[in-house]
Amino acid sequence: MTFNPVLDGLKNYEAGKPIELVVREYGISPSDVIKLASNENPRGCSPRVLAAIQQESTRAHLYPDDSMYELKEGLASRFGVGKENVIVGAGSDQVIGFALHAKANPNQGILMAGVTFAMYEIYGKQTGATIFKTPSKMHNLNEFRALLATHKGAIGVLFLCLPNNPLGEGIDTEEIKTFLREVDPNILVVVDGAYQEYAAFKDPAKAINPKAFIEEFPNVLYLGTFSKAYGLGGMRCGYGIGEAGLIHTLHKLRPPFNITTLSLKAAIEALKDEAFVTHCMEENFREMKRYEAEAKALGFDFIESYTNFITLAFSEGKSASTIAQSLLEKGIIIRDLSAYGMNAVRVTIGTPEQNSRFFEIFKRAYC
Ligand SMILES: *Cc1c(COP(=O)(O)O)cnc(C)c1O
Question: Quick one: which of 108, 121, 261, 323 is 20 to 30 A from 343 by CA?
Answer without folding.
Answer: 121
